[in-house]
Design brief:
Number of strands: 9
Order of helices and strands: EHEEHEHEHEHHEEEHH
Distance between the termini: 33 Å
CATH topology: UDP-N-acetylmuramoyl-L-alanine:D-glutamate ligase
Strand content: 15-25%
Number of domains: 1
Radius of gyration: 17 Å
CATH architecture: 3-Layer(aba) Sandwich
Structural class: alpha/beta
Shape: globular
Oligomer: single chain
Number of helices: 8
Helix content: 25-40%
CATH class: Alpha Beta
CATH superfamily: Ribokinase
Length: 249
């Protein structure tokens, strides 16, 4: 049988900790094939973003078109886009694949604080890409930044922000609670029905680059493999937790 495939639309990361390198690794672990469209080439480490080279939007479109010609997709995962022109090119390229789930990880800044999506790009994210998304996976600071609001002070406020973000047209929101406080690490899935599901795991001390990439890619892998949205989110969260608890050799 043909293995499921996910189209990854994201940037490279020279450190290997995030971006397409991390995405492909996750899909491989889940037995899912990866097709790639590179949006930017970044030079970064755990401490800083040294340089970013944006791939011309028409080249991004050509990559996506070639991937769509190659084989049937089970899902699309979108990471770093960089600017409005690239975001619009991606959105236009995916306009005719309405039946394919699209998971959007709204990459706004790097873990070290470098800007990875400019202000016009953030506006276009809300206006153009979110209405095409099956699932959007912001963390606590990202959902606040996208809405232009302060970071929510409690769970009720965070869920309310997620509900407001969903009014921009995406089917579902996964609010990542890694930046929140508490003994447990809680993510909140606001489903297409509007119902809220708490997905809980133990909280791991410290931070790990690329966890957002890994989570979104893991969810896309699950959707491509036929899992429900809730099942895909739960499995991906468990995978990320296991990766954080297992030292790399």
């Amino acid at each position: 049988m043909t293995r499921p495939a996910v189209l990854l639309i994201a940037a490279t990361d020279s450190s290997g900790g995030a971006g397409l390198t991390r995405d492909v690794r996750v899909l491989t672990d889940f037995g899912v094939d990866a097709l790639c469209a590179v949006t930017a080439v970044t030079a970064q480490s755990d401490q800083r973003v040294a340089a970013v080279h944006h791939v011309p939007p028409e080249v991004v479109q050509s990559q996506i078109a070639a991937a769509l010609e190659t084989r049937r997709l089970g899902a699309v995962k979108i990471g770093m886009l960089g600017d409005r022109a690239t975001l619009e090119a991606v959105t236009d390229s995916l306009a005719h694949i309405a039946a394919v789930p699209i998971v959007v990880d709204p990459v706004l800044v790097s873990s070290s604080g470098g800007i990875l999506l400019d202000t016009p790009g953030r506006t276009a994210l809300l206006e153009k890409l979110l209405p095409r998304a099956t699932l959007v996976t912001p963390n606590v600071p990202e959902v606040a930044a996208l809405l232009g609001e302060p970071v929510a002070a409690d769970e009720a406020g965070l869920i309310a922000q997620g509900q407001r973000l969903r009014t921009f047209g995406c089917q579902a929101i996964l609010l990542k609670g890694g930046h929140a406080s508490g003994e447990a690490a809680v993510d909140w899935l606001i489903a297409p029905s509007g119902s809220v599901h708490r997905i809980t795991s133990e909280r791991v001390s410290g931070s790990s680059r690329g966890t957002g990439c890994a989570l979104a890619s893991g969810i896309a892998a699950g959707l491509a493999s036929g899992l429900s949205l809730l099942e895909a989110c739960r499995r991906a969260k468990s995978y990320v937790l296991d990766a954080m608890l297992t030292p790399e050799s």
